[in-house]
Design brief:
single chain; alpha/beta; six-stranded mixed sheet; four-stranded antiparallel sheet; 11 helices; 35% helix; binds adenosine-5'-triphosphate
């Protein structure tokens, strides 16, 4: 058994249905005004795994992950209907506070977006302070842990008061990951987290994703199929707002069951 093999690959397939998902998407539909962007998505996401969402431009990848933590509805005119069950909470239940959901399901965006006027330290501490944490020692600890977790601490530990915007693009993206981790999310959504980065910075983020899976569940959008193959345990292929095929990454890439998936994977359209 190679070290490259992931936990999901080693486990026998038969156990798959017995594992309670971390996130269960049921009959999820989403719109921008009258345009339907997601069509009846059903998908279970297993805890402590990385799932890649792939598919051609405009197929609904970003919309899908933004529906998971209720960011989609923040776009004027946007709406979602259906269920996203996080453990045993329906994210779309009327009694649920979307702010709590965003804390439990964090997000990292395509372009690194540190708060430009804030120091490295304050970028990571900002969310904690907003949540009323003022104790300096506690803040120091969480900031250090988050930066360590994001594999950035060694590079910035002597420069914590410098602006976040003084870092390289790859470092800024890891700072944004640290900022998300400081809130101790259970699920981390990543929307093409390496598309603005060079290959070395990208591979650092990919390594990081491997490590982060031990503590949380990752759902990432990527245009890069090699990246999906390298980092994701499971891959979902979408087309025109529909989930066409979803399974273990190895199966999706080596033995797709649907012709559309096969055509996309082999570069016949994109
Ligand atoms: N703010 C918006 N207003 C109106 N329509 C939108 C908006 N954002 C996305 N859409 C439309 O919704 C559909 C899904 O978009 P989405 O961004 O989820 O696709 P995607 O697969 O992530 O695309 P890409 O790979 O290009 O980022 C597309 O047809 C897109 O044009």
């Amino acid at each position: 058994m190679s070290e490259e093999e992931t936990l999901a690959e080693r486990e026998p397939l038969q156990t798959e249905n017995l594992i309670t998902p971390k996130v269960s998407i049921k009959n999820l539909n989403a719109w921008f005004g009258t345009k339907q962007a997601l069509k009846n998505i059903n998908m279970d996401i297993r805890e402590n795994t990385a799932t890649a969402i792939i598919g051609p431009s405009g197929c609904g990848k970003t919309t899908l992950i933004r529906c998971l933590n209720r960011m989609h509805e923040m776009t004027p005119g946007a709406a979602a209907k259906g269920h996203v069950i996080l453990d045993d909470t329906d994210v779309y239940d009327k009694s649920v506070d979307p702010v709590v959901i965003k804390r439990r399901i964090g997000m990292v965006f395509q372009r690194p977006n540190p708060f430009p006027t804030m120091s490295i330290y304050d970028n990571v501490a900002a969310g904690l302070r907003l949540n009323g944490i003022r104790d300096r020692r506690l803040l120091d600890n969480i900031v250090q842990e988050s930066l360590e977790h994001a594999a950035l601490w060694e590079e910035v530990k002597n420069d914590l008061s410098k602006p976040g915007s003084s870092l390289s693009g790859g470092q800024q993206q890891r700072l944004c990951i640290a900022r998300a981790l400081a809130m101790q999310p259970e699920v981390l959504l990543m929307d093409e987290p390496t598309s603005a980065l060079d290959p070395i910075a990208s591979s650092k983020i990919e390594e990081l994703i491997h490590g982060l899976k031990k503590d949380l569940t990752i759902v990432m959008v990527t245009h890069n199929m090699q990246q999906a193959a390298r980092v994701a345990d499971f891959t979902a292929f979408m087309y025109l707002g529909e989930l066409i095929e979803y399974g273990r990454t190895k199966q999706i890439f080596e033995n797709p069951q649907k012709e559309l998936t096969e055509r996309y994977i082999s570069g016949k359209f994109g």
